[in-house]
Amino acid sequence: MDLQLSDRVALVVGGTGLIGTAVADTLRAEGATVVTAARGDGADVVLDASDTDSIERALGRVLDEHGRLDAVVVTAAPAAQTLDQSRLSDPVQVAEAVEGKAMAFLRVANAVIPSMREAGFGRIVGISGQNALLTGNITGSVRNAALTIAAKNLADEVAGTGVAVNVVNPGPVTDAPSSEVPAGKPGESSPQQIADLVAFLVSPRSSTSGESIATGHKVRGAVFL
C-alpha cells in the first residue's frame, strides 16, 4: 500500500531514541521528509518539550525550511526503566512523570495544531503505553493515562478540520518480541512494529482520530469498553 507520504513533512520529537529512530527511519523509507528533534545532540533540530519557547523555535525552523508540517510524532519521555521503583506512588515522582510525558505531548500538540488547522490537514501521534491500563505502578499508569486523555480531548477539539490525533500504546518494547502473552500482562512489541503503525496513522490514508491503539497483544484477560 502506498501511504502517500512522499510529499509530506514529518517531525519526530524524541527522534534519536529507540522508538523515535525507528519511526523516523520508517517514515523516510515511505518517502516522507523527516525532521528529528531532541534536547541533546544528534537530532536535526533542538527541541525541549518542557519549554514552550524551544518548541516554537523548532517549529518555526521546520516551517521556514520546508514550508509545511504535515505530521508530528511525540516519542519523547523518560524511559520507564528510569523511574524510581521505590517511589512509584510518590506524588512528586508522579507529577514529574506526567510533566515529562503527558505535558510534553500536550505542549507540542498545542503548538502545531494552529498551522495544521490552517492547512486543513495534519496528523499528531503520541506514544503512550499499556501501563495506563494496569495497576501496581501509579507513576507509569498516570503519566500514560494522562497522555491518552489529553490526546482524546485534542482529537475532539479538532474534529472535522482535517487534523487527526491518536495514541499508540505499546506493551514492553524489545527488539525480539516474544509470542507469549502472560495472563494479566500486555504482549511485547518491537520498535519497528510501533513505527509501522505510526506510519499508517500519519498517512493521508488514515481517517482514524481519537483512538488509543495497542501494539503487541492488549492486556490479556481484561476487557476494555
Summarize the structure in short:
This protein is α/β, with parallel strands linked by helices and 225 residues long. It is built from 5 helices and 7 strands; from the N terminus they run βαββαβαβαβαβ. Helices cover 39% and strands 16% of the residues.
N-to-C series of helices and strands: EHEEHEHEHEHE
Please give the radius of gyration in angstroms: 17 Å
**Structural class, judged by helices and strands?**
alpha/beta
Total DSSP E strands: 7
- Measured distance between first and last alpha carbons: 31 Å
How are the strands ordered across the major sheet? 3-2-1-4-5-6-7
Q: What's the number of helices? A: 5
Biggest sheet descriptor: 7 strands, parallel
Outline type: globular
Report the uncertain regions. none
Question: Any overview of this molecule?
Answer:
With 225 residues, the chain is of the alpha/beta class. Helices cover 39% and strands 16% of the residues. The protein is built from five helices and seven strands. It has helices spanning 18-29, 52-66, 91-119, 138-157, 191-201, and strands at 9-13, 33-38, 45-46, 71-74, 122-127, 163-170, 212-215. A seven-stranded parallel beta sheet has the order 3-2-1-4-5-6-7, with helices on both faces. Helix 1 (18-29) packs across helix 5 and helix 2 (52-66) runs parallel beside helix 3. The longest helix has 29 residues, at 91-119. The two termini are 31 Å apart.
